[in-house]
Write a structure and sequence with these properties.
There is one protein chain. By secondary structure, this protein is mainly α. The chain has nine helices and no strands. The protein is elongated and about 80 Å long. Pfam families: HMG_box (PF00505). InterPro entries: HMG_box_dom, HMG_box_dom_sf, HMGB. It comes from Drosophila pseudoobscura pseudoobscura. GO terms for molecular function: DNA binding.
């Protein structure tokens, strides 16, 4: 296989900058105030860790954004990012050097503060932070997988008998203005428990019927996903080939 290396064009540099900062720009450069989420340290009951200083590019954005919006009040956030990315490429060298000096100065302060902060953490607190980061990462992966599965058109599993009853009760016995949803749900759950086996059987049969259809549909879908190379969205049990039957060795015939 031959790899070729090409120089970045001016347009590709701008595009790279836009893609790199777009998620942060939407959060930090929006015209409406955005509530900042708690840091991992705050979620485990610790003071927030020192914040990293803005890079020269983000300092440039912070300085130029008000001027750009003043000249064009109706400009969108994405267009702000696009124009500032282009302006950064053409920015004066002295301006970039000044922003770089400011960044290095603030970075030195940050490193000193972070060292002092880390020194105050106990082993137990470090372990708690590490575990929470792991949990957050795994939760993010699960969300991404659910989104990917949905985009690939995975068949939906049918509702359970109890859920079917809940859905029907929303129409037959809806929540009153005086009830909270929790109160209504508790009352409906109690009603389900009082149903006879024959009454529950109606909902159970509907679920079983749709479950058979679902099993066939999910089997076809997973086979298609395997052929297309989307192994990560297939249930792990379906990727395991059944063991081949063991051949029995012929026993030698003993001479009498």
């Amino acid at each position: 296989m031959i790899f070729t290396t090409t120089l970045l064009s001016r347009g590709s540099i701008i595009g790279s900058l836009i893609n790199k900062v777009r998620p942060l720009a939407v959060a930090n450069l929006s015209n409406s105030p955005v509530q900042q989420s708690k840091t991992v340290e705050e979620q485990v009951g610790l003071p927030p860790r020192p914040k990293k200083p803005l890079t020269p590019y983000f300092r440039f954005m912070r300085e130029m954004r008000p001027k750009l919006i003043a000249t064009n009040p109706t400009i969108t956030t994405i267009e702000v990012v696009r124009q500032l990315a282009k302006s950064w490429v053409d920015a004066d060298t002295n301006l970039k050097e000044r922003l770089q000096v400011e960044f290095k100065k603030d970075q030195q302060v940050y490193l000193e503060q972070r060292t002092k902060y880390d020194a105050t953490l106990t082993d137990e607190q470090r372990a708690g932070i590490k575990q929470l980061k792991k949990d957050i990462g795994e939760a993010k992966e699960r969300r991404q997988l659910r989104k990917r599965v949905k985009e690939l058109g995975r068949p939906k599993k049918p509702a359970s008998a109890f859920l079917r009853f809940i859905i029907s009760e929303r129409v037959n016995t809806p929540q009153t203005p005086q009830q909270t949803y929790r109160e209504w749900h508790q009352k409906t759950t109690a009603k389900w428990s009082r149903l006879s086996d024959a009454e529950k059987a109606v909902y159970i049969q509907e679920t079983r019927k749709e479950l058979e259809i679902y099993k066939k549909a999910i089997s076809v879908w997973e086979e298609k996903m395997i052929r297309l190379g989307h192994i990560d969205v297939v249930r792990h049990g379906n990727l395991i080939d059944p063991p081949e039957p063991k051949t029995r060795k012929a026993q030698p015939v003993k001479e009498k």
